[in-house]
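Form P-L/3: holo structure prediction, ligand coenzyme A.
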Amino acid sequence: MIQIRSCEGFDELEACVELQIETWGYDESDAIPRKTFLLAQRIGGQVLGAFEAGTLVGFAMSLPGIKETQNGPRPYLHSHMLAVRESYRNRGLGAQLKWEQRREALSRGIRQMEWTFDPLEIKNAFLNIHRLGAVSRTYLVDFYGVSSSRLQGGLPTDRLLAEWELDSSRVEAFLQGHPAGAHQIEERIVVPASIDQWKASEASRERAFIVQSENREKFKQAFTRGLAAVGFSRDAEGNGVFELGHLPEARFEAKEE
Ligand SMILES: CC(C)(COP(=O)(O)OP(=O)(O)OC[C@H]1O[C@@H](n2cnc3c(N)ncnc32)[C@H](O)[C@@H]1OP(=O)(O)O)[C@@H](O)C(=O)NCCC(=O)NCCS
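OUTPUT (holo model):
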């Protein structure tokens, strides 16, 4: 029986720090310390845990933010970390933590969440876009700079910004397991199934770097043309396929500079 709930007390926050290091292999300069988890909770963010018999097996951490929109400033949550212990993965816990983030945010009147994810991580794209109904129309080049994350494989930390409009009919439909009506797909961007292997070894890393560079340009050009990543699928070979189309106007449009 897994329980999803807010973390409480220093020990549970420390367990998040440990699971963070276990997951990403961060060195001291990159790891987020317990006191930042504590502050995240205190200032209106979230530290949610998945517990089995009192032991933390997953967590999601978010920070509060304010976005200047055309209708004035609006609060939102930036979800900074989502991790599930390896032996507990692919049982729906990651998705459950995200849906609990949504429920908790809406209970406080917060209607939008964002987070970044590596567009080379096929599983994460599948979860974010295909399971949760997030969309992306922003590409961030080398967002964090150099990272000690073992998942990064020494590549630039390019990220897509995921936007999750929590009470939109699109996200509601994904929650019910009935994703919203089909978008007209204008373009597809493919991530090869072998990308993780290529990243993991020094000898093949250059191949991963080439894919990253080529896809970076494709995303940037597509987003400039007003497209957004609205769908994600896997083909028969296990390649990841971003599906890009036009979004109806987003409700939380950022203010023009
Ligand atoms: C990302 C992470 C939190 C997901 O947790 P999880 O509990 O395994 O997620 P879920 O089981 O809810 O969903 C994963 C989905 O991806 C699917 N999946 C698994 N491997 C996949 C792959 N190689 N390619 C595409 N999809 C894959 C699963 O089948 C599942 O989909 P389903 O619900 O249709 O079966 C976990 O893998 C993790 O901790 N990864 C390392 C840290 C990380 O990358 N965090 C996310 C940063 S955005």
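COMMENT: Residues 13 and 34 are 6 Å apart (CA to CA).
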